[in-house]
Design a protein that fits this description.
This protein is α/β, with parallel strands linked by helices and about 280 residues long. The protein is built from eleven helices and nine strands. It has a six-stranded mixed beta sheet, with helices on both faces. A three-stranded mixed beta sheet has the order 5-7-8. It comes from Lutzomyia longipalpis.
Amino acid sequence: KDAEAGGIEVTRQGEIGLIGINRPSVQNSLNDDLTMRLFAEIERLEEDNSILVGVLHGVGGTFCAGYDLNSISRTTFSKASRPTRRILRKPFVCAMSGYCLGNGLELALMCDMRVIEESCVIGFLNRRFGVPLIDGGTARLPAMVGLSRALDLILTGRHVTAKEAFEMGLASRFVANGTGVGQAVNAAIAIAKFPQKSLMHDRASVYRATFDSPSLEDSMRYEIDSVSSEIIDEAVMCSRRFSDGLGKGGKFHDIKKKPIADWEADEIAREKTKRGVECE
Protein backbone atom coordinates (compact mmCIF):
# COMPACT_ATOMS: atom_id res chain seq x y z
CA LYS A 1 0.00 0.00 0.00
CA ASP A 2 2.84 2.41 0.86
CA ALA A 3 4.60 1.59 -2.40
CA GLU A 4 1.42 2.30 -4.34
CA ALA A 5 0.93 5.63 -2.56
CA GLY A 6 4.51 6.64 -3.30
CA GLY A 7 6.63 9.16 -1.54
CA ILE A 8 8.96 12.11 -1.89
CA GLU A 9 12.63 11.63 -1.06
CA VAL A 10 14.46 14.68 0.22
CA THR A 11 18.25 14.72 0.57
CA ARG A 12 20.95 17.33 0.71
CA GLN A 13 24.51 17.84 -0.53
CA GLY A 14 25.91 21.01 0.99
CA GLU A 15 24.02 23.95 -0.51
CA ILE A 16 22.13 21.67 -2.94
CA GLY A 17 18.72 20.23 -2.07
CA LEU A 18 17.51 17.12 -3.91
CA ILE A 19 13.84 16.24 -4.25
CA GLY A 20 13.01 12.81 -5.68
CA ILE A 21 9.67 11.41 -6.85
CA ASN A 22 9.46 7.83 -5.57
CA ARG A 23 6.54 5.82 -6.92
CA PRO A 24 8.30 3.27 -9.12
CA SER A 25 5.36 0.84 -9.31
CA VAL A 26 3.70 3.26 -11.76
CA GLN A 27 6.78 4.89 -13.32
CA ASN A 28 6.67 7.70 -10.72
CA SER A 29 3.35 8.97 -12.03
CA LEU A 30 1.63 11.46 -9.76
CA ASN A 31 -1.70 11.55 -8.01
CA ASP A 32 -3.37 14.41 -6.12
CA ASP A 33 -1.83 13.53 -2.76
CA LEU A 34 1.69 12.94 -4.07
CA THR A 35 1.54 16.16 -6.08
CA MET A 36 0.70 18.24 -3.04
CA ARG A 37 3.50 16.58 -1.06
CA LEU A 38 5.92 17.32 -3.89
CA PHE A 39 4.88 20.96 -4.01
CA ALA A 40 5.16 21.24 -0.21
CA GLU A 41 8.78 20.01 -0.37
CA ILE A 42 9.59 22.45 -3.19
CA GLU A 43 8.21 25.32 -1.15
CA ARG A 44 10.10 24.14 1.93
CA LEU A 45 13.34 24.13 -0.08
CA GLU A 46 12.62 27.63 -1.38
CA GLU A 47 12.23 28.91 2.18
CA ASP A 48 15.47 27.31 3.44
CA ASN A 49 18.11 30.05 3.21
CA SER A 50 20.94 27.53 3.55
CA ILE A 51 19.98 25.83 0.26
CA LEU A 52 20.81 27.76 -2.91
CA VAL A 53 19.84 25.39 -5.73
CA GLY A 54 17.36 22.51 -6.05
CA VAL A 55 17.61 19.30 -8.06
CA LEU A 56 14.38 17.56 -9.10
CA HIS A 57 14.65 13.89 -10.09
CA GLY A 58 12.90 10.55 -10.14
CA VAL A 59 13.84 7.47 -8.13
CA GLY A 60 14.37 4.13 -9.89
CA GLY A 61 15.47 5.23 -13.36
CA THR A 62 12.41 7.21 -14.46
CA PHE A 63 11.69 10.86 -13.80
CA CYS A 64 7.90 11.01 -14.02
CA ALA A 65 5.41 9.39 -16.41
CA GLY A 66 2.84 12.14 -15.82
CA TYR A 67 -0.41 12.02 -13.89
CA ASP A 68 -1.83 8.64 -12.96
CA LEU A 69 -4.93 8.39 -15.14
CA ASN A 70 -6.47 5.99 -12.61
CA SER A 71 -6.50 8.72 -9.96
CA ILE A 72 -7.48 11.83 -11.90
CA SER A 73 -10.35 13.65 -10.21
CA ARG A 74 -11.95 17.06 -10.30
CA THR A 75 -9.53 18.24 -7.62
CA THR A 76 -6.69 17.48 -10.03
CA PHE A 77 -7.81 20.44 -12.13
CA SER A 78 -8.18 22.78 -9.14
CA LYS A 79 -7.30 26.41 -9.73
CA ALA A 80 -5.47 26.51 -6.40
CA SER A 81 -1.97 27.96 -6.46
CA ARG A 82 0.69 25.42 -7.50
CA PRO A 83 4.44 25.95 -7.88
CA THR A 84 4.36 25.07 -11.58
CA ARG A 85 2.12 28.08 -12.20
CA ARG A 86 4.76 30.55 -11.11
CA ILE A 87 8.50 31.08 -11.43
CA LEU A 88 10.35 29.25 -8.69
CA ARG A 89 12.15 31.47 -6.20
CA LYS A 90 15.41 29.52 -6.52
CA PRO A 91 17.20 27.88 -9.45
CA PHE A 92 16.25 24.25 -10.08
CA VAL A 93 17.90 21.62 -12.26
CA CYS A 94 15.82 18.66 -13.47
CA ALA A 95 17.38 15.22 -14.06
CA MET A 96 15.32 13.66 -16.87
CA SER A 97 15.56 9.89 -17.24
CA GLY A 98 13.39 6.98 -18.38
CA TYR A 99 9.98 8.49 -19.09
CA CYS A 100 9.24 12.20 -18.81
CA LEU A 101 5.66 12.50 -20.00
CA GLY A 102 2.65 14.78 -19.68
CA ASN A 103 2.62 16.46 -16.29
CA GLY A 104 6.13 15.10 -15.68
CA LEU A 105 7.37 17.03 -18.70
CA GLU A 106 5.67 20.15 -17.36
CA LEU A 107 7.58 19.69 -14.11
CA ALA A 108 10.82 19.54 -16.09
CA LEU A 109 9.90 22.69 -18.02
CA MET A 110 9.35 24.48 -14.70
CA CYS A 111 13.05 24.08 -13.87
CA ASP A 112 15.82 26.43 -15.00
CA MET A 113 17.92 23.65 -16.54
CA ARG A 114 17.17 20.15 -17.81
CA VAL A 115 19.79 17.38 -17.90
CA ILE A 116 18.51 14.53 -20.08
CA GLU A 117 19.81 10.96 -20.25
CA GLU A 118 20.29 9.49 -23.71
CA SER A 119 17.49 6.90 -23.46
CA CYS A 120 14.90 9.25 -21.96
CA VAL A 121 11.59 9.52 -23.81
CA ILE A 122 9.49 12.67 -23.53
CA GLY A 123 6.13 13.74 -24.85
CA PHE A 124 2.61 14.90 -24.07
CA LEU A 125 0.94 11.49 -24.25
CA ASN A 126 -1.96 12.94 -22.26
CA ARG A 127 -3.19 14.16 -25.66
CA ARG A 128 -4.43 10.64 -26.40
CA PHE A 129 -6.79 10.65 -23.42
CA GLY A 130 -8.21 14.16 -23.60
CA VAL A 131 -6.24 15.44 -20.60
CA PRO A 132 -5.27 19.12 -21.04
CA LEU A 133 -1.97 20.73 -20.02
CA ILE A 134 -2.61 22.61 -16.78
CA ASP A 135 0.85 23.06 -15.25
CA GLY A 136 2.51 25.58 -17.54
CA GLY A 137 3.34 23.44 -20.55
CA THR A 138 1.61 25.66 -23.12
CA ALA A 139 3.16 28.79 -21.56
CA ARG A 140 6.75 27.62 -21.21
CA LEU A 141 7.41 25.27 -24.12
CA PRO A 142 7.04 27.81 -26.99
CA ALA A 143 9.56 30.11 -25.28
CA MET A 144 12.09 27.27 -25.19
CA VAL A 145 11.69 25.57 -28.56
CA GLY A 146 9.66 28.01 -30.68
CA LEU A 147 5.99 28.02 -31.67
CA SER A 148 6.24 25.49 -34.52
CA ARG A 149 8.01 22.79 -32.51
CA ALA A 150 5.85 23.42 -29.45
CA LEU A 151 2.67 22.92 -31.47
CA ASP A 152 4.14 19.76 -32.99
CA LEU A 153 4.73 18.24 -29.54
CA ILE A 154 1.49 19.48 -27.98
CA LEU A 155 -0.95 18.73 -30.81
CA THR A 156 0.40 15.35 -31.94
CA GLY A 157 1.35 14.00 -28.50
CA ARG A 158 4.18 12.06 -30.14
CA HIS A 159 7.21 10.49 -28.48
CA VAL A 160 10.40 12.54 -28.66
CA THR A 161 13.85 11.04 -28.12
CA ALA A 162 16.40 12.62 -25.80
CA LYS A 163 18.63 13.51 -28.75
CA GLU A 164 15.83 15.39 -30.51
CA ALA A 165 14.83 17.12 -27.25
CA PHE A 166 18.40 18.31 -26.79
CA GLU A 167 18.78 19.43 -30.39
CA MET A 168 15.55 21.46 -30.30
CA GLY A 169 16.67 23.24 -27.13
CA LEU A 170 14.26 21.64 -24.67
CA ALA A 171 17.09 20.00 -22.72
CA SER A 172 20.16 21.89 -21.55
CA ARG A 173 22.57 18.94 -21.42
CA PHE A 174 22.66 15.47 -23.00
CA VAL A 175 24.33 12.82 -20.80
CA ALA A 176 24.90 9.08 -20.59
CA ASN A 177 22.34 6.77 -18.99
CA GLY A 178 22.64 6.53 -15.23
CA THR A 179 24.49 9.83 -14.87
CA GLY A 180 21.56 12.25 -14.97
CA VAL A 181 21.23 12.94 -11.25
CA GLY A 182 25.00 13.26 -10.78
CA GLN A 183 25.30 15.63 -13.72
CA ALA A 184 22.32 17.64 -12.47
CA VAL A 185 23.99 17.96 -9.06
CA ASN A 186 27.21 19.08 -10.75
CA ALA A 187 25.28 21.76 -12.63
CA ALA A 188 23.64 22.85 -9.38
CA ILE A 189 27.02 23.08 -7.66
CA ALA A 190 28.30 25.19 -10.56
CA ILE A 191 25.40 27.60 -9.97
CA ALA A 192 25.75 27.66 -6.18
CA LYS A 193 29.47 28.44 -6.16
CA PHE A 194 29.04 31.94 -7.59
CA PRO A 195 27.97 35.16 -5.81
CA GLN A 196 24.22 34.82 -5.55
CA LYS A 197 22.84 38.38 -5.55
CA SER A 198 23.98 39.18 -9.09
CA LEU A 199 23.11 35.66 -10.25
CA MET A 200 19.54 35.94 -8.96
CA HIS A 201 19.21 39.41 -10.49
CA ASP A 202 20.23 38.13 -13.91
CA ARG A 203 17.93 35.12 -13.59
CA ALA A 204 14.97 37.37 -12.75
CA SER A 205 15.81 39.65 -15.68
CA VAL A 206 15.86 36.73 -18.10
CA TYR A 207 12.47 35.44 -16.94
CA ARG A 208 10.92 38.91 -17.07
CA ALA A 209 12.29 39.57 -20.54
CA THR A 210 10.96 36.21 -21.75
CA PHE A 211 7.49 36.14 -20.20
CA ASP A 212 6.48 39.56 -18.84
CA SER A 213 8.21 42.37 -20.69
CA PRO A 214 6.27 44.15 -23.47
CA SER A 215 9.39 45.31 -25.35
CA LEU A 216 13.17 45.12 -25.62
CA GLU A 217 13.42 48.65 -24.26
CA ASP A 218 11.40 47.69 -21.20
CA SER A 219 13.56 44.61 -20.62
CA MET A 220 16.76 46.63 -20.76
CA ARG A 221 15.33 49.28 -18.46
CA TYR A 222 14.36 46.64 -15.90
CA GLU A 223 17.81 45.06 -16.15
CA ILE A 224 19.53 48.22 -14.90
CA ASP A 225 16.77 49.62 -12.66
CA SER A 226 16.57 46.40 -10.64
CA VAL A 227 20.24 46.49 -9.64
CA SER A 228 20.15 47.14 -5.89
CA SER A 229 22.83 48.60 -3.66
CA GLU A 230 23.39 45.11 -2.22
CA ILE A 231 24.16 43.77 -5.71
CA ILE A 232 26.60 46.62 -6.32
CA ASP A 233 28.29 45.98 -2.98
CA GLU A 234 28.68 42.31 -3.88
CA ALA A 235 30.15 43.17 -7.28
CA VAL A 236 32.65 45.60 -5.75
CA MET A 237 33.66 43.12 -3.04
CA CYS A 238 34.18 40.25 -5.51
CA SER A 239 36.09 42.52 -7.90
CA ARG A 240 38.44 43.44 -5.08
CA ARG A 241 38.98 39.78 -4.31
CA PHE A 242 39.93 39.28 -7.96
CA SER A 243 42.41 42.15 -7.66
CA ASP A 244 43.89 40.34 -4.67
CA GLY A 245 44.54 37.30 -6.87
CA LEU A 246 41.44 35.17 -6.39
CA GLY A 247 40.01 33.73 -9.60
CA LYS A 248 43.11 34.26 -11.67
CA GLY A 249 44.07 31.23 -13.71
CA GLY A 250 40.42 30.28 -14.23
CA LYS A 251 39.73 29.01 -10.69
CA PHE A 252 36.54 30.53 -9.30
CA HIS A 253 35.52 27.87 -6.78
CA ASP A 254 36.24 30.21 -3.85
CA ILE A 255 34.97 33.50 -5.27
CA LYS A 256 32.23 33.83 -2.65
CA LYS A 257 33.46 35.32 0.59
CA LYS A 258 33.16 32.76 3.35
CA PRO A 259 32.36 33.86 6.92
CA ILE A 260 35.40 33.82 9.19
CA ALA A 261 35.99 34.70 12.82
CA ASP A 262 36.98 38.27 13.72
CA TRP A 263 40.35 37.15 15.06
CA GLU A 264 41.13 35.40 11.77
CA ALA A 265 40.14 38.47 9.76
CA ASP A 266 42.43 40.62 11.95
CA GLU A 267 45.29 38.16 11.46
CA ILE A 268 44.84 38.23 7.67
CA ALA A 269 44.83 42.03 7.70
CA ARG A 270 48.04 42.12 9.77
CA GLU A 271 49.73 39.70 7.38
CA LYS A 272 48.78 41.87 4.40
CA THR A 273 50.13 44.95 6.16
CA LYS A 274 53.33 43.12 7.06
CA ARG A 275 53.88 41.99 3.47
CA GLY A 276 53.31 45.54 2.25
CA VAL A 277 55.97 46.91 4.62
CA GLU A 278 58.45 44.20 3.60
CA CYS A 279 57.96 45.04 -0.09
CA GLU A 280 58.73 48.70 0.60
